[in-house]
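Q: What does the assembled structure look like for these inputs?
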Amino acid sequence: MHLDDTIVAIATAPQPSGIGVLRISGPRAVECVATHFQGADLHRVPSHRLSHGWIMSKAGEPLDEVLVAVMRAPRSYTAETVVEIQGHGSPLTLEAMVRMVLENGARLAEPGEFTRRAFLNGRLDLTQVEAVSDLIHARSESGRQVAVRQLRGKLFRAIEAIEEQVAQVAALVEACIEFPEEGTVFTHHEDCLKRIDQASADLRHMLEHADQGRRMREGVSLALIGEPNVGKSSLMNALLREQRAIVTEIPGTTRDSLEERLHLKGLAFRIIDTAGIRTTADVVEQEGIRRSRNAWQQADLTLILLDASRPLGPESLQLLEEADPERTVTVLNKMDLCSQPPHWLHPELPGEQVLLSARTGEGLELLEALLVRKAMMGEVPAGEEIWITNLRQQQSAERALEALEWVRDGLVQDVGEECLAVDLRTALNALGAIVGATTPDDLLGKIFAEFCIGK
Ligand code: GDP
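A:
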């Protein structure tokens, strides 16, 4: 991929809309548009101001009435000169304008290439790059909030501060290797230890809520499990209530395992309504049950549904036995048919228990509050506590922390400076990987490939 040429893409969704935006970035961005712009001279307009005019085709026909902004390097999204054309949101017109810019020497941008340029030009670090993507794709209020904070550089700055501490120690150790007679590390031993301890404590603090951060970003999967007719579909509908309008059936799932989205207290849940689990000779049903069990194993949380109005059958007993209490809520449904909790209600049922009626809605709010609490593994931490939001960041932070522990051991046991230097380098590499400074190209490629064209 060349990064010294000029790229163009439609930045808005390719459908009729109020306005559509064309974005051009690179050294020839202004030239690519200026000759077709009937209005101000784009070579001379002030940076970051809108100019009104018309885009004319090569044949001199008007294409669209537009506003054009020139953002001169380095004060732009990509840190290169960027021109944005705001036209009417007509896909045909926008495509005609893209062709015009291409004819003037630009090329089509690859997915995420604007952001990639911003990254390579040092405008964004990798955590901010991920935040851009997370923000665009956020499906819940909490996911949106953590993305915005990350975009503002919260994680980047925190990692930088930790890196600084570790780099200071590394510099001392390197000096000692070079000038052994001065005994540098020895004289700064306490200081080194203090810095490493501080860096480790900061990383540990960040990792504390990493799982919650990931759940805020990705949402939480919730499997509905139970025998046929216990009320799984009814409960799903009750939970979805007014949210019906945004219910989507995720493609790729089969008729027997439906996935739908639900928002509770700003948190996104993917509810998987599974085929009823029971013993059967029917081959098709067996396949459905196999998938139910699969969904059950993979889900972050499980609701085991029981019919409170009937005796507990052997199949339900089997499900209860297999359940992981940490990840399970047992729901006794159809309480409207019972005058009191069933005699088989037992404290040894796995996980928390909720008495409920999917028909009347009784107990539903309790269940929802419990789901949020379980999903966030306790109280939802105040937003400020969330640092790490994806597995990549988490794994790098864990690697860095591990290396810092080796460094600490090394300092305490007075191993040679060479050993310390190796471990310090490993820690610095892992920290660098979080912000993208030492991230391998193929991984970067994967991250940018998930972006949309025009971003
Ligand atoms: P599923 O097979 O587990 O998905 O169960 P359904 O949701 O299809 O419900 C099976 C039957 O139980 C239907 O006739 C529902 O109307 C009924 N049902 C579900 N929940 C309740 C409830 O809370 N109270 C009562 N009385 N009936 C319910």
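The radius of gyration is 29 Å.
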